[in-house]
Amino acid sequence: MRNLANNLQPLAINAATIKQWSLAQLLDGCARRGVTAVTPWRHHVQELGAAKVRRLFADTGVRISGYCRGGFLTNPDAQAAHDENVEALKEAADVGATSMAIVAGGVASDTKDLSVARQRVTERLNKLFEQAKTYKVPLLIEPLHPMYAGDRSCVNTLSQALDMCDAIDPERSKYLGVICDVYHCWWDPYLKAQIYRAGKDRLQAFHVCDWLVPTKDMLNDRGMMGDGVIDIRGIRHWVDEIGFDGIIEVEIFSERLTALPGEDVLALCIERYQTVV
Amino acid sequence: MRNLANNLQPLAINAATIKQWSLAQLLDGCARRGVTAVTPWRHHVQELGAAKVRRLFADTGVRISGYCRGGFLTNPDAQAAHDENVEALKEAADVGATSMAIVAGGVASDTKDLSVARQRVTERLNKLFEQAKTYKVPLLIEPLHPMYAGDRSCVNTLSQALDMCDAIDPERSKYLGVICDVYHCWWDPYLKAQIYRAGKDRLQAFHVCDWLVPTKDMLNDRGMMGDGVIDIRGIRHWVDEIGFDGIIEVEIFSERLTALPGEDVLALCIERYQTVV
Question: In angstroms, what separates the C-alpha of A96 from chain B's closest C-alpha?
């Protein structure tokens, strides 16, 4: 297993983890502390422009590890969903992101039939996959916790996401893969088997945070690694066993953390990455 | 498919749905409206005594449909967990309940390894199963939504629950089965297949409510049928197809509903049962 205690190289910070900082502050903070990768969101690019974002990364020497995010493919308006995603892919390519996260979209607004929503996701990803190859930005399907099936994602397990990958990209081109985020996947009885099934070609990103007991808010009460009940190291062990040598990204939506000084949150991310992940 | 519009016979009300009423008020209300079954909780029996509870049911002619609840089998103290469940089974037998719901218990307090918690549940259910046969009260494993894996149940899918049934009771004795509650199971991509796998021997109870978008509280913001995004009739169709002819129980934990007059909640349960389920 990779020893992370003295190795910050694999660590990335998702910008949502330290919302109290601007992207510029986050990149400066990371550069100062030896953190070498950050994942920005679309709103950063939309606010600052791709050129400025690229320059901020270049000036600090921080890598851009992923791009948040495309998806929402259950929209009854197929063309609108497709166009929005092509726009996001273009942004991701413009800033030099190495992948883009896909959040599938929840129950469709025109039918409660989840199988219809899921079928739409597969069909539209199939079309979007061609664009991903054109822009050379892999699409990474991020299964979300089943508690988001209503409004955010009808893809709720690695198994589903990998079925989609197999259907769309049987050649394992690397332009379609999955994100394993412990927050979304930790409860899954088939998690280990599905990580092994994915292999390193498919499993291109590993996200960490923790599940708090009690969780007081379904969106913004994720925990810092070590503060909850997830066996994070156990899951990381499985991910290591398939030869995963990529980025380990800290992505925590938390009002508790947003209320702290950004510097303190970053220090805590690093410490827990070294001791708990 | 059973036509429920003019048939209240299958309908049961879980006492937690109308908490603003005492058990006596609930049974009176149900009897007045032609609802023939109610599921009480352990605290009713502990407060009133089994004899009094039995008399309340007998006096109103309402059936006792289930008993809430046993379980919490991931407790490091195996003997304490077992004894508590035998006590609950005895109560269930004393009041004449036709089954007892089992909520497995969440991540164990002494290890974050979910496979350990799940193994404990299987082993201890295996032991408890003997008592269930002695008391003639079937144990019904209720998989809970994955968002309860931390604190309430490490059994999160019908698939897991049925694996446990197959391991413990391969003869399908009917003293071990499962509850399919749409709130917990609706998101599951394998739900249909697992309902078919269960068959009517195993699937002994069907619970309905709805998933609200947004859900503001993980415990007490379940929705009245029809107010959320679950395709309840679609799931009921599958349950009907396996020949399920048992009770359809309305179990809704909701602060919104608790704030209304009990009479209004009961009327709404009946109306939505007839039109949405």
Answer: 35
Q: Which of A160, A215, A229 sits opposite B189 (nearest CB)?
A: A160
Within 8 A of B188 by CB-CB distance, chain A residues are 146
Distances in whole angstroms, Cα of residue A228 to Cα of each of A3, A19, A232, B31, B109: 22, 21, 10, 46, 12
User: Which of A157, A228, A231 is opposite residue B114, by nearest beta carbon?
Assistant: A231
Q: Rounded to an integer, what distance in angstroms lies between the CA atom of residue B176 and that of residue B179?
A: 10
Q: How far apart are the first and last CA of chain B?
A: 11
> pTM above 0.95?
yes
Confidence at B100, pLDDT banded by 50, 70, 90: very high
Can you tell me the distance from the alpha carbon of B246 to that of B207, in angstroms, rounded to the nearest whole number?
A: 11
Query: Do A229 and B107 lie within an 8 Å CB cutoff?
Result: yes
**What's the pLDDT tens digit per position in B199-217?**
999 999 999 999 999 999 9
Cis, peptide link before residue B69, omega less than 30° from 0: yes
CB contact, 8 Å: B154 with chain A?
yes
B151: nearest CB among A107, A213, A230: A213
Q: Quote the tokens at residue A21.
A: 């900082």
Q: Do A218 and B189 touch (CB under 8 A)?
A: no
Please provide the average confidence, as pLDDT, over all residues in chain B.
98
Residue for token digits 């269960």? B198
ipTM of the complex: 0.97
Residue B242's alpha-carbon distances to A115, A200, B180, B235, B237, in angstroms, are 20, 41, 13, 11, 9
